[in-house]
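Give me the fold.
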Amino acid sequence: DIEYDADVAMVIIKDFKDTNTLYEKIMNSTREGRVDPNRIPHFDILNLYIDKNRDAPFGGNIIIQYLFLIEDNNLVEIGYKDIAQDRTYAKISRVFDWMLENGYLVNMR
């Protein structure tokens, strides 16, 4: 049984909701003239689920989010995801600002 051979299981899945929220924020910024619409990278926000085996002490569900920049084949850690948090505007704004600061989005102003 593989469950007894592995201490940890890890699964990575696209977070469609957060990816769409970031995409909408970028599109709104292009309509406002803040971001160059011709220089938008392909990206996804990914969730890495880490789960201990059933014999390990309870530690809760651990989810780490990453920004996957597809053209660069680059993963950037966003941080832990709180599944109880419905509104992710502050987190998405931090990712948006990081993309501006690091040249993945071009500021028009």
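The first strand starts at residue 8 and ends at 14.
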